[in-house]
Amino acid sequence: MLVAAAKRGVVLSCVTLAGRRDLWVTSAGEPHVAAPANSGHAGSVRGVVHWNRPIFPRDPDALEDSVENALVLVARCQPHEDALATWESAMRTKAVDPDVLARAALPPAARELLAEARPFADSGTETIFQTRLRWLDVPLTPQVWILGHRVDLLIGERLVVQIDGGHHVGGQRSSDIAHDAELMLHGYHVIRIGYDQLMNQWGSVQHVILAAIAQRLHLRDW
Q1: Residue 219 domain flag
Q2: CB burial class (10 A; 0-12, 13-18, 19+) of residue 150?
Q3: What pLDDT was estimated at residue 151?
Q4: Does residue 94 come out as left (phi exceeding 0), alpha (psi in the -120 to 50 range) or beta?
């Protein structure tokens, strides 16, 4: 990819650069590159070309964009919840300094994400989950320490949501099951969902969450 970028006078950017920096991206898909706004020789690039004037000046010899410039492109390129997950991943890993971004001349989409992004979600799936339920008039608290372990999300006071990724196997899976049992013995209600459920079966997931809230399972005493 770097050789191809060098031949075509572009830099790897947007979700491609984010993925190369181990930030959360929902789908990397085809390569995303950036080219100067007045460049006309990037048309042969296979993938998505972002012709733009970078907010943070680019070294003319660089083949990879800065994380800051990549996030600006992500903000206008990706759906809002996917872009927010990437931005929060960058903040969680300290790949960017929010104060530096705040002083930059960000375009509106990037400025909106900067105001919304928080470094507390442990993964992009948690960001997406919270974004989809933010309309609820119920407290959503990520990464709460309960009974010796962190839980992904606490809804209200008693409803725990755990979002499984690919690492929830073997010993990790056994530990998760044991903690779920301990939570329930102490009066918490646990809903555990998988990646495919979150991304491809959201209607069913939301139905379960709303049914639990309707039964006031998120409240301490009722």
Answers
A1: no
A2: exposed
A3: 92
A4: left
Do 70 and 142 reside in the same domain of the chain? no
Domain stop point among 76, 100, 116:
116
Assess whether 166 and 66 both reside in one domain.
no
- Give the CA distances from residue 212 to residues 134, 164, 190, in Å, rounded to whole numbers and listed in that order: 16, 19, 10
Distance CA(129)–CA(69), nearest Å, equals: 26
Q: Strand 159-164 and strand 189-194: pairing?
A: parallel
> Can you give the pTM of this predicted structure?
0.81
Residue-wise pLDDT tens digits, 42-72? 556 778 999 989 999 999 899 999 999 999 9
Phi, psi of 118 (to 5 degrees): -135, 150
**Residue 54 belongs to domain spanning:** 2-116
Domain count, the chain: 2
- Same domain for 21 and 107: yes
Task: Based on the fold, state whether residues 30 and 132 are members of the same structural domain.
Answer: no
In this structure, is residue 154 part of a structural domain?
Answer: yes
- In one-letter notation, the amino acid at residue 26 is T
Residues 109 and 129 in one domain: no
Task: Report the DSSP beta bridge partners of residue 161.
Answer: 153, 191
SS3 state at 157: coil
* H/E run at residue 128: helix 124-132
The reply to whether 165 falls in a domain is yes
pLDDT in tens, 80-138: 999 999 999 999 999 999 999 999 999 999 999 999 998 887 888 989 999 999 899 89
The C-alpha atoms of residue 205 and residue 192 are separated, in whole angstroms, by 10
